[in-house]
Amino acid sequence: MSFNASAGTTHLPNKDYSNEQLEFLWNQVGPVATHPSVTATVFPTPEPASYAGPGEFHPLVASNYGDQLAEAKLPANFAWGMSSSAFQIEGAVKDEGRGPSIWDLLSHRSANQVADNSSADVVSQHYYLYKQDFARLKKFGAPYFSFSISWPRIFPFGHGPANAAGIKHYDDVIAELIKNGITPAVTLFHWDTPLALFNEYGVSSERILRANCVRSHIAGMDQSQDCGRLRQLRQIHHSALR
What we know:
Helix content: 25-40%
Oligomer: single chain
CATH class of the domain at 80-242: Alpha Beta
CATH topology of the domain at 80-242: TIM Barrel
CATH superfamily of the domain at 80-242: Glycosidases
Low-confidence stretches: 230-242
Order of helices and strands: HEHHHEHHEHHH
Largest sheet: 3 strands, parallel
Strand content: under 5%
Number of helices: 9
Shape: globular
């Protein structure tokens, strides 16, 4: 028997949404780190009235402006806020049904794909500490917060059944933002494509996005029985779709 990879199909449909298949995906990534002490914020503790300055920036963050911005002023009608992405701050990458994204694979398996060779396994634990984080944003006076919804946390396989725990989490996130007087701005896709879709489609990002991204996210919202807030927010920021 002879083999020819070039003669193979470029689409291998997956209809296996079992726990075993999910564990197979995580086996591709390899061992995942966990925080030695994971504590979820039930009720946030009071935040101080003022905060110390940030001090030195991380060496990988450019900070070349010096005194140029010291006297800068924003226009009166300027809409400002703070932003993040799920992969950069949530941690809990394997918790409560989340599937791996392509960046979980790259950060674990591809040296220097991330500049300091770190992973997102733990990071800021925002997944468990978001109530405290939002209490802090409120103290800062932030009127908006832009966050991204982790695609593989809603759809561990990129499509198919929605992960109820993931949907509930983001519904709670939005409710907590509103409770703190902060307007949510939702990013549906921030490059954390589910690893399962790369296995299914290969590396064609355009095919993956057009076939699955918006359809999957909206379907996930609509599958929820008690996530009205989430269904009302369907903005797409940093969109790669044209």
